[in-house]
Please model this.
Amino acid sequence: AGTEIPEPGPIRLVGGPNRCAGRVEVLHEEQWGSVCHDDWDLNDAQVVCKQLGCGDAVLAPIGAKFGRGFETIWLDDVNCTGVEAALSECPARPWGDHNCYHGEDASAICADSGITISTSVRLVGGPSRCSGRVEVLHNGVWGTVCDDQWDLREAKVVCRQLGCGTALSALPESKYGEGKGPIWLSDVNCKGTEASLTECEVKPWGDNICNHVEDASVECSEVDIPEEGPIRLVDGPNKCAGRVEVLHDNRWGSVCDDHWDLKDAKVVCKQVGCGSPLSALGGARYGRGSDIIWLDDVDCNGTEESIFDCKARPWGEHNCYHGEDADVVCAGN
Model:
């Protein structure tokens, strides 16, 4: 005994549409935990996808794209070459050693998930690969799309083609700058269900009377920022200060300021991705909530990953009114 080759450590993808896309979780000491996205890239995702028998990696999303984990963060600074048989073989920090929070959980999208990324369309000039001016590849040359008849149905197809979630907006008039090169497509008319723009009704390649001022753009939902977790700060000067509200039973509610202090604020600030706390305020400093009061007598020790891990009264049980709503101000903005 003792000479057997260890099995590759168990690994899974959670929060995605199927077992081949989602947040990466690894099992260590009989506990599942997530992986921090520092240095996370396609080589790391490739190892995960192969390990799960899910084909090649398509994307390596960062920023808790498939929701935030709840347990330990097991791995950080993972640096695979892409040929390892298991994630546990890749160089990384020691188990549990990290400088991350769950808003930085790494994910993998594998080919067998059914999510594919088109190489013939791209978004340029925007803040991320999922927003910008639409460009399509034809005969080896990238060109733009004219905004005639451009609307959310076409944007929806582009977002799907890029594995970028749903379309938030279809923007005309070179919102993300004027392209160079040819204007390839015009009068694109999609139903919104097509797999690619070229399946939509459209004029022949290059046949149009447009100029680059009319270049079409789209903004898709799947940008590299942490999804809104079940907690938020509202009515403050920025997203890192305000009245604390938590989501329970699909309903947002406030937190009573009884026993509210800097340790509670520390957990909230970390959970919303806003760094360290500057102050823990009471007395509805940022206005009164209008719905239910969900939490009271919250007592965090300051090290919890989430306010839901702190001691408190049962959901909805309190002796407060909205004039006692709790607020925080965090260092981030």
Summary: The longest helix spans residues 42-51. The chain has three domains: 11-113, 121-220, 231-330. The two ends are 55 Å apart (CA to CA). The first strand starts at residue 11 and ends at 14.
